[in-house]
Amino acid sequence: MIRVIIGAVPAALAMFVIGFIFFASGLQNIASRNLDDMQAAAVQQSLAANLHGTGTYVIPNPEGSSAQTVMYGKGPVATVHYNSHGYPAMDAGALLGGLFLDFIVALLIGAALIGIDRRVPDFGSRARVVAIIAVAASAFMHLGEPIYYHHDWPHFIYLFIADAAALIAAGLIIARWFLPTPAREHSAALHAETRDAA
Q: What transmembrane ranges does the database entry give (predicted)?
């Protein structure tokens, strides 16, 4: 387990770098739409005037009333993740919190791999397990939004690709360098036998 804890550090750093590439390099703009300054100011003023606290709003909410159910059917509709306060675009606290989350996720990936390392001894098989689980988890987390809620596909496909890439990178780092292999175990056992015999 100590090896996995150590391995979670470079795995988390890899996730952090991939996150930076996908979400702080400008690449993220290919999957989202932007408004010009006047439109952004008008929407911001409307949000401040009509939303009264940080939260996620479904507008109109078909569960809210029969009138909103009709409005929802006619459209337009929106799901708004709203924060009533501003914060820096590059918030150092959020970056540190994100890096800590990456470490915890990498540690969980390592813990899962420890559970199968004896039955899946070779790196190729471990890599396949990592990739399949990462793609399945990312698909479940993101692709349901456009299916169930009719949100836009480009944004959620982008999130799916970004998260799958980060999870795969973390898993491959741990699987390749921080799990015992049968050869290592055999060598360690042989060394112990030699030492005991001497």
A: 7-27, 92-115, 127-144, 156-179
Instruction: State the Cα–Cα distance between residues 167 and 22, nearest whole angstrom.
Output: 13
CA 17 to chain centre: 12
Taking the domains of the chain in order of start, what are their residue ranges? 1-24+90-190, 33-88
Which long-range CB contacts under 8 A does 91-100 form with residues at least 24 apart? 98/16, 98/19, 99/12, 99/13, 99/16
Whether the ω angle into residue 121 lies within 30 degrees of 0, i.e. cis, is: no
Q: What is the identity of the amino acid at 2?
A: I
Q: Record the pTM.
A: 0.85
Which residues have CB under 8 Å from 73's CB, separation 6+?
Answer: 62
How far is the C-alpha of 161 from the C-alpha of 167, rounded, in Å? 10
Buried b (16+ CB within 10 A) or exposed e, 128-159: ebbeebbbeebeeebeebeeeeebeeebbebb
Kindly report, residue by residue over 25-84, the tens digit of the pLDDT: 999 999 999 999 999 999 999 999 999 899 999 999 999 899 999 999 999 999 999 999
* Residue-wise pLDDT tens digits, 95-123: 999 999 999 999 999 999 998 988 999 99
